[in-house]
Amino acid sequence: MLVTDTAEVPVRLEVAGDRPRVVAGRPRSPLPRIPGGLLGRAGGEPVAVRWVVAYGANASPDRLRDKGLTGPGALLVPAELDGWVAAFEARVTGYGAVPLTLVPQAGARTASWVLGVHRDLVDELDRTEGRVAGGAPRRVDPRAGSTRHAPPGTYQLGHVGPVRVAGGWVLPDGLAYLPGTSTEVQRHDGGWRTWPTHDQTTARRHLATGGPSAPAPPPPAPVLGPWPRTPLVPEGAWHDRQSGRSIAGCSRVAAPRR
What we know:
mainly beta, about 35% strand, Hypothetical upf0131 protein ytfp
């Protein structure tokens, strides 16, 4: 999906050599032309894109618009990652939702999205997530945020391993916004309260009834400083790099349920 300030356009990623090409998801449906936008002059090859695993607000077109990230266009592409689950935090955001965060869970496979934004908007994306490039503070002041920007330290940028992306692609070392130092996550039946097994209604009820929570596992090695490049790699090339150990199913990633 290509998300602009005014529309949500169905698209898909095709393999064109070693680079992705965005094509319309419906026959004879032209892609919108955005001067200086994410798809470049040719209107189909993403340029200057940074990719990050998206869940919760970052997988919502309306929230991406609220964050000011859709002017050049933003891409949302179905994806899957292993070893992580999306769990509900033990708080409510300023816009009224119980947020999600990624926590490790052995053996898990999670359907999610990857978000592609123009590299010039990465700093703004960081501010909306409360990422502090120099390192997360020990404590997060909830009063320091706004309707657009999360309080500094809310999330940290971290590595989540290979991410399979619909259309025949892999992010070899995917990035995601992971829990900050003060994040508490809802507990349920000895584990985490996760999405999509649970929804906003049950997460809110958990908070209203004083349900248990626990500190989120900290990211093992948060990314500090500027963002690294996040290139998509064709599944075939990734297969070759792994000396025959292919990540199966890259072209069969289904869109996660909202």
